[in-house]
Specification:
Layout (H helix, E strand, L loop, with lengths): L10 H5 L11 H7 L4 H5 L2 E5 L4 E7 L12 H17 L6 E12 L6 E12 L3 E9 L5 E13 L5
Antiparallel strand pairs: 1-2, 2-4, 3-6, 4-5, 5-6
């Protein structure tokens, strides 16, 4: 089985302790895995795994700024794709992998410093595709960016 059927946003909350995730690593394990790739370079840190969401933070600083001193839209998209794609991977068995098909983002508020927090929740978790809703908020819970990520679920291939 690929992902256990279809789950809509909010369904797991109604079911109580049931989780959409097949694998439950710690945030520390997720952080270690991404430490030597883009998430690590940008300071993205996983902080929480809920029953139907995954959460990560990213600093707003010189590494994530655009030339005018504000949070770069590409950094926000990187944060959204990171948290959404990792959430998708936690929903599938080992013989499958999740690859990005489409991502969009609406940048709603500028931010010059501090930290932003991204929370990914599913719109759809199916056997062949996932669609994730990601909200990025500042320390005052103000919405900075919203994103939608579509992932294809494909058979894992051996590395070349």
């Amino acid at each position: 089985m690929r992902s256990g059927g279809q789950i809509a946003t909010g369904q797991t909350a109604r079911l109580g302790a049931v989780s959409i995730f097949r694998v439950r690593p710690t945030p520390e394990q997720l952080n270690e895995r991404g430490s030597r790739s883009m998430p690590g370079f940008l300071g993205i840190r996983f902080t929480e795994i809920g029953s139907d969401y995954l959460r990560a933070t990213m600093p707003v600083n010189e590494r994530t700024h655009q030339p005018f001193g504000l949070l770069h839209g590409g950094a926000s998209v990187t944060l959204a794709e990171t948290v959404g794609s990792v959430a998708a991977m936690l929903c599938v068995d080992e013989q499958w992998q999740c690859v990005g098909q489409e991502i969009n983002a609406n940048h709603l508020r500028g931010k010059a410093s501090g930290t932003v927090t991204a929370t990914a929740r599913p719109f759809h978790v199916g056997a062949r595709s996932h669609v994730w809703h990601i909200e990025i908020r500042d320390e005052e819970e103000r919405l900075v960016c919203v994103s939608r990520l579509t992932m294809a679920i494909v058979e894992r291939r051996a590395a070349p």
